[in-house]
Amino acid sequence: MTITQILKQFDKASLTTISKLTIRELEEEKKGHWVAYVDEGNESYDVHVKFLGKQVDFTSCDCGVQEDQLCAHKTKMLLMLDDKLKGKKVVDKPVAKKTLSKKKVSESEILLRASDQEIVYEWLIKTFASNKVLEQDFILSFSAPECKEYTVNDVVSIVKTIASSSFKVKRNADANTVKEFIRLLNLAIEPIEKFTVFNITKPLALDIYLCIIEEVLTLKRGVKTTSTRLNTFVEKLIEKYALSLLNVNDKDAVNRSISSLFKKIKDENNYERCGFLLLILQSIYKLSDSDIKYYCAEESILLVKKLDKHRGPFYSVILFLLNVVLENKVFNQCYNDFICHSFDNETTITLLKELVPIDVTFVIDKCELLINTNNKLESTQEYRKILISIYEERNDVEKLVKLKKESFLVDFKYDDYIYILENTHEKTEWNKFRYKAYDKMKYKKYTHTVFYQIMCHENNIKKMLEYIVSTYQVIVCQYKEILYNYNPAEFLIKVFRLGQYSHYDEEDNIDLANYIASKYSKDAIFKVYKDYKSYSSSCLNKLIVELAENK
Q1: What percent of the chain has pLDDT over 90?
Q2: I need a labelling partner for 354 at 20 to 30 A (CA). Which of 261, 426, 463, 500 fits?
Q3: What's the Rg (C-alpha) of the chain?
Q4: Distance of CA 385 to the CA centre of its chain
Q5: What does the alpha-carbon distance between residue 519 and residue 491 come to, in Å, rounded to a whole number?
Q6: Distance between CA atoms of 190 and 198, rounded to whole angstroms?
Q7: Can you give the three-state secondary structure of 315-339, one letter per residue?
Q8: Which comes out higher in pLDDT, residue 448 or 533?
Q9: Helix extents (H) in 307-447
Q10: Which residues of 513-548 are buried (b: 16+ CB within 10 A; e: fewer)?
Q11: Where are the domains of the chain?
């Protein structure tokens, strides 16, 4: 549903109450993914809203409400986003104007100044024993900075200590707990990062960054939370390593570090660790200049020769290597070292597309093999598209018809249907395909734009009327004249059957309602309405009846 459709579920009084809640730090963390804090009384809740186009795809709130339910905090954020996305000016947190006054000394500050130092010392010792987060904060804030070297074991111990003090034995963590953990972790690794920057071209620096990434992501798997801050922390940490390395003036040292990273990937047997190394390599490549990118391409040529391409951990690595050599135009030097793998569609599809001008016969044979050994049309559609592009170049009609028949049952393209119609000369064969196509489309609402195009092209108005009740109002509106002229009485009944409910995936079509109200008498409309009354306060039927009453 869109934001507007969701908010329609609430009455005005509820929305007025909800709008009084305070929202803070509203930001678009990723494209279409918004996060914010919503305050209610003394509590603060971490709220996420994700869009897919204009549709609200996902919402979450750490108040405990389920993903598919709405709470006041989610609704407040939707209200704010509704205004923001419409271009209205929004304010995260209104601040009341106050007259300046002298700073008020708190009661705790007065007591602290008046208390004996030994008593305060004893109290802090007891408090630290029961509050490990406060103890870690104290240690990190007041310990004297050390100029020391760090080992991987040192860093692992530091991260584990902070995690233990922040999460204890919790399996669930709210946004504030995660936020506090990240704050403490950033304090703790600040001196470590200074150490690694000075040693960034040494293998130890990579090992230290890698162990922090592993510890944080292992923690993320063990703690249930809606917060995205752990992922964001890791992304920023990887970027810091990449930028620190690329800022080194000694390009030979940088190249040696990159070569070492490629070697680590080759030798790594652990799937997860291989993935972390790849993330680091991808970040370095993304941020590097053309010279470093070309060096990565040369390393990719060497690595792809040595990798065991049948091992799962390397599938994503091979795709990265393929994209690197393609971008740097050195694919011709190593294309024989890449293999097509039925379990790695993305790499295989990319590889076959690039091999068309080099060895088209191999591409045709491989695509046909992959299609024939997989009975799921959807899984092999991209291979079919490669073959279609080849046979279109050759104008091989017979093979194109065969491929487009299969392709149509996945993509449902109108032009493919017409091509098949115009080039299938055997009537029995055509009827068999047409029956299968109709049977597939009538149950898939998302295909109905094409379905109605086809039925209209074939002048199959009877079928168009039949499927009105299971299609979109906008499609009915598009063909309203044809449907009305074919059978006015049946058209009115079908429209009222369609319009009994409000549909989550579309708004009521005012043009269709106006058309019905203008074409039929008030008596005719109310006669049909008796049999197909509205089942929601706002639906197409209600709209039609209101327009008819005002005639």
Answers
A1: 49
A2: 261
A3: 32
A4: 26
A5: 11
A6: 13
A7: HHHHHHHHHHHHHCCCHHHCHHHCC
A8: 448
A9: 315-327, 345-355, 360-372, 381-394, 397-411, 414-423, 427-442
A10: bebbbeebeeeebeebbeebebeeeebbbbbbbebb
A11: 3-85, 450-549
The separation between the first and the last C-alpha atoms of the chain, rounded to the nearest angstrom, is 32
d(CA 300, CA 335): 12
Neighbouring C-beta atoms of residue 41, cutoff 10 Å: 6
65 vs 289: which has the higher pLDDT: 289
Classify residue 385 by burial, with Cβ atoms within 10 Å: 0-12, 13-18, 19+. middle
Exposure string over 284-314, b if 16+ CB within 10 A, otherwise e:
bbeebeeebbbbbbbbbbebbeebebeeebb
Cα separations in angstroms, 373 against 177, 342, 369, 380? 50, 9, 6, 10
Q: Which residues pair with 47 in a beta bridge?
A: 36, 61
Other Cβ atoms less than 10 A from the Cβ of 342: the count is 12
User: What amino acid is encoded at 407 in this protein?
Assistant: S
Encode pLDDT of 270-279 as tens digits.
888 999 999 9
In angstroms, the Cα distances linking 272 to 258, 267, 277, 319 are 20, 13, 9, 16
Distance between CA atoms of residues 260 and 175, nearest Å: 38
- Using the 8-state DSSP alphabet, how is residue 500 labeled? T
∠466-521-505 over CA atoms, to 5°?
45
- 6 has pLDDT over 50: yes
- Rounded to an integer, the average pLDDT of 23-46 is 83
Q: Which residue has the tokens 């799921």?
A: 376
Please give the pLDDT value at position 39: 86
The predicted model gives 145-157 an average pLDDT of 79
Q: What is the pTM of this model?
A: 0.67
Q: Is 224 exposed, middle or buried (0-12, 13-18, 19+ CB in 10 A)?
A: exposed
Angle of helix 540-549 versus helix 522-531 axis, rounded to 10? 150
Q: What is the C-alpha to C-alpha distance for residues 355 and 277, in angstroms, rounded to an integer?
A: 29
Task: Give the model's pLDDT for residue 524.
Answer: 93
CB 363 within 8 A of CB 351: no
Mean pLDDT of 63-83: 81
Phi-psi region of 375 (alpha: psi -120 to 50; beta: other; left: phi over 0): alpha
CB burial of 236-247 (b: ≥16 within 10 Å; e: otherwise) equals ebbebbbebbbe
- How far, in Å, CA of 60 to CA of 227, rounded? 10
Coil, strand or helix at 46:
strand
CB 355 within 8 A of CB 362: yes
Mapping DSSP onto H, E and C, the string for 114-141 reads HCCHHHHHHHHHHHHHHCHHHHHHHHHH
Predicted local distance difference test score (pLDDT) of residue 28: 83
Residue that has been written with the tokens 């936020």 in this structure: 179
- What does the alpha-carbon distance between residue 462 and residue 459 come to, in Å, rounded to a whole number? 9
292 three-state secondary structure: helix
| pLDDT tens-place string over residues 459-496 | 999 999 999 988 999 999 999 999 999 999 999 999 99
**pLDDT reported for residue 97:** 36
